[in-house]
Every structure is written in structure tokens, then in C-alpha cells.
Amino acid sequence: MSLVLQGLCKRFDNSEKDTLHEIDLEIKTGEFVCIVGASGCGKSTLLNLVAGLEQPTQGKVLLDGKEVTKPGADRTVMFQEHGLFPWLTVFENVKFGMKLAGISKQQQEEKAKHYLEMMNLWEYRDYPIHQISGGMRQRTALARSLTMESKLLLMDEPFSALDKQTSNRLREELQRIWMETKQTILFITHSVEEAVYLADRVVVLSPATGKVTEIVTVELPRPRHVYASEFVELRHKILEEVRGEAV
Q1: Nearest to 22 by CA among 54, 46, 48
Q2: What letter does residue 206 receive in the DSSP assignment?
């Protein structure tokens, strides 16, 4: 799989400048890439363009050489809000996307069980959504996303609404799952620490120019530890870049 952004620009009707300007980026199979930047730099806009939820003003999004013009089954999106259906159980929510995609009932059962076990949620499969915690809801949403086994998983600040302890635990689980599955992931976050913890590469966007100012390869061994000196040093370096762009 190859995701290529070519000269990607996006300007909204009520703006006098591009939110994103001439973005060039390539993501290959199995990569975990994080996008960071100060508020207003266009992180979520970039994800929406890749998802096909918005159209670029200029440039192209190419997935395996085919131009993205609308949402498709080859991309799965996980937003900050879990988007689960409160009238369905955990198990039914995880199967929902597969049901819409026309996957057989047997495969729905098998895949849902597999990913719920991976997320340590199998024993909660029959719980209504309102009876589980916020962190468990996000884990349920992640399990649902993984069942689709799409070429590309797009994640838009999925842990930002959670408390620090819960978000840290989910980062650890996501890192473990990625190491097991090697799912290709494009992950939007405002947290530099989260980006360094998860990513193979960290892409820094500028709110002033709408451009990529730096792409940092994270060569730290996995699993990563936030208090390791190499981790702290790299986090500080990227944080200074983000702060400089914000100013």
C-alpha cells in the first residue's frame, strides 16, 4: 500500500489563505505516521482529505495510485468521539461496520471475537455501551475499526477527550496492537509526547504557512518509555519546533 499526497492544498471559502499549502508526503505499508502542530495548522483537515470527506483545492491524494475523491472501504476513520450506538451491545457495535460491508455472519463473529480479545474486551461483549467506561468505549471503537482490516486506518485525536491515565493506557495498547498487526496508520494528535511514543515518523505542520516544516524519523526501540533520556530529548526537539511555528 502507498498513500501519496501531491501538492495538496486546501482553502476554505471564508479564508484568504490556504489552511494546507503544497503538502507532499508518502506513507508506505505498515508505517505509523503522526501529524502534529499547533491549533489551526490543518491536522484534521488533512485527515479529512485523505478520508475523502473533503476535496482539495489543489493537488491530489493517491492511494495505491488511485485518486481519492470520496470515502471508501480501503480507509477506516476513528474520530475523537467514539461514535458507538448506545442501543447496541459492545459485540453488536464491533460487528456493525462489517454488517454494512456485507461480510458474512460467521466472519463477523470471528473477527469481532478476535479483536475484542486483542483489546481485552471479550468478557464485556454483552454489556450495553452506557455501562462501560469512556476508555472502554474508545477501545470498542478501535476494535470496530480494526475489524474492517482496511488498507489505512485514520485516527483523529482519538484519546484527547480522555483523562491522562486512561489515554496513557490506550497509547500502550495501541502500540502493542500495531506491533502485532502492522496496520498502516495516519494519526492526528496535539500531543508531541503521544506522537513520539507511537510514530515511525512525526510530521510537523505550520499554522502560519500550512506547510510541512519538518519530518522526524523516530528510531527509538519499541516498546517505548516516556522517561527514557532519548525519548525526552526527541520530544523536546519536536516540541520546540511546534512552539516555534505557533509563535
Answers
A1: 46
A2: P
Rounded CA separation 170/173 (Å):
5
d(CA 185, CA 175): 11
Q: What is the DSSP string of 25-85?
A: EEEETT-EEEEE-STTSSHHHHHHHHHTSS--SEEEEEETTEEP-S--TTEEEE-SS----
Q: Taking a C-beta distance cutoff of 8 angstroms, is the pair 90, 43 a contact? A: no
pLDDT band at 245 (very low <50, low <70, confident <90, very high): low
Measured between alpha carbons, how far is residue 2 from residues 33, 53, 73, 172 in Å?
13, 19, 15, 26
pLDDT at 247 over 60: no
Cell of 166: 486512561
C-beta neighbour count of 229 within 10 angstroms: 7
CA distance 91 to 95: 6
